[in-house]
């Protein structure tokens, strides 16, 4: 199993960060993704909630994230399919700080092919770091909106 963690800080509140994270339409503004759409809305009153499936793409690479944890202003978890890995689980945790919010983005996965964990870790770590820092930057830039 490969584990990756990235952290970032924003002066925005956790509720503002959550509003961005929980809205799939904002994803291209803060992540390395070119686009994101809601492939399957969640059952219940919140279409972005537990069970929602987001279709995301970057160039010709397409992936699907299924929301597995939806705890507003605190935790957002998901599983991912579309990469050559198995059992991919991601978790974004938001923690209030005296001057804003700490974002911790962690993932764990098992390489699909034995011996490829080190090859997969670097690009996924770069991607996750880009997501965490991009989310923090976007939250800071839009906090007054």
Write a brief structural summary:
With 145 residues, the chain is of the alpha+beta class. It has helices spanning 14-21, 27-30, 117-142, and strands at 2-10, 35-40, 53-58, 61-71, 75-81, 85-97, 100-111.
Topology:
Blueprint: E1 2-10, H1 14-21, H2 27-30, E2 35-40, E3 53-58, E4 61-71, E5 75-81, E6 85-97, E7 100-111, H3 117-142
Antiparallel strand pairs: 1-7, 2-3, 3-4, 4-5, 5-6, 6-7
Helix pairs in contact: 1-3
CATH class, please?
A: Alpha Beta
Mean pLDDT: 95
CATH topology: Alpha-D-Glucose-1,6-Bisphosphate, Chain A, domain 4
User: What is the chain-wise order of helices and strands?
Assistant: EHHEEEEEEH
The total domain count is 1
Q: How many E-type strands?
A: 7
Reported CATH architecture: 2-Layer Sandwich
Tally the helices. 3
The largest β sheet comes out as: 7 strands, antiparallel
Distance between the terminal alpha carbons, to the nearest Å?
A: 41 Å
Strand order of the largest sheet: 1-7-6-5-4-3-2
Quaternary state of this entry equals single chain
Pfam families: Polyketide_cyc2 (PF10604)
Protein name: Polyketide cyclase/dehydrase/lipid transport protein
Explain what you see.
InterPro entries: Polyketide_cyclase/dehydratase, START-like_dom_sf. This is Polyketide cyclase/dehydrase/lipid transport protein. It comes from Stackebrandtia albiflava. This protein is of the alpha+beta class and 145 residues long. It has one domain (2-142): START domain (Alpha-D-Glucose-1,6-Bisphosphate, Chain A, domain 4), CATH 3.30.530.20. The chain is 26% helix and 44% strand. It contains 3 helices and 7 strands; from the N terminus they run E-H-H-E-E-E-E-E-E-H. It has a 7-stranded antiparallel beta sheet with strand order 1-7-6-5-4-3-2, with helices on one face. It is globular and about 45 Å long.
